Amino acid sequence: MTGSEPWLVVGLGNPGPSYAGTRHNAGFMVLDALAGRVGGRFKAHRRVHAEAVEGRLAGERVVLAKPRSFMNDSGGPVKGLRDFFKVPVERLVVVHDELDIPYGAVRLKQGGGDNGHNGLRSITKSLGGGNYLRVRFGVGRPPGRMDPAVYVLKDFSAAERKELDLNVERAADAVEALLTRGLAAAQNVFHAS
């Protein structure tokens, strides 16, 4: 790896205004925050079914992207972007919601299973493996017996929304730390809190 390849940071979510404030769109929210940091705006990519913006984040060359497909079909756009920008898998970061992490917590890892997350399952299948980096935005477990599939498509609660902007910025900070300091150092910072 020469270091000349960009980082590809992909946020997962569902397109359209009816999904904009849902837990499943936490990845899109973090990518919007990162786009603000690079001073860019998302535009439709000319060859891949995704919106993308290129720029520099903490001195690193990045392509920020949001698939325009639904969550369950994220793999095609992610593979298309990775191929188009010639990004090695170790420079691919996927930002997504995570049920098994308490609301507001951010966790980072490389590889692993999809844990029932259909967006990750689609990406892993399209890439032929799951050894990419992940920034996991905790949304917590659903209350009572609510179906997790229903829960992630609901908006954040009023109490959660009070902290949402802060949590989104914290997850964006985690992406920056991952790009500039590496996985272990970023985990030391973000897993401690």
TrEMBL record:
Localization of this protein: Cytoplasm
GO cellular component, one term: cytoplasm
Protein EC: 3.1.1.29
InterPro entries hit by this protein: Pept_tRNA_hydro, Pept_tRNA_hydro_CS, Pept_tRNA_hydro_sf
Site residues, Stabilizes the basic form of H active site to accept a proton: D97
Keyword Protease applies: no
Listed GO MF terms: peptidyl-tRNA hydrolase activity; tRNA binding
Reaction catalyzed: an N-acyl-L-alpha-aminoacyl-tRNA + H2O = an N-acyl-L-amino acid + a tRNA + H(+)
Catalytic residues, chain numbering: H24
GO biological process, one term: protein quality control for misfolded or incompletely synthesized proteins
Residues under site feature: Discriminates between blocked and unblocked aminoacyl-tRNA: N14
Residues involved in tRNA binding: Y19, F70, N72, N118
Keyword RNA-binding: yes
PROSITE patterns: PEPT_TRNA_HYDROL_1, PEPT_TRNA_HYDROL_2
Domain of life assignment: Bacteria
Keywords: Cytoplasm, Hydrolase, RNA-binding, tRNA-binding
Assembly: Monomer.
Annotated function: Hydrolyzes ribosome-free peptidyl-tRNAs (with 1 or more amino acids incorporated), which drop off the ribosome during protein synthesis, or as a result of ribosome stalling. Catalyzes the release of premature peptidyl moieties from peptidyl-tRNA molecules trapped in stalled 50S ribosomal subunits, and thus maintains levels of free tRNAs and 50S ribosomes.
Family: Belongs to the PTH family.
Protein's UniProt name: Peptidyl-tRNA hydrolase
The organism of origin for this protein: Actinomadura rubrobrunea
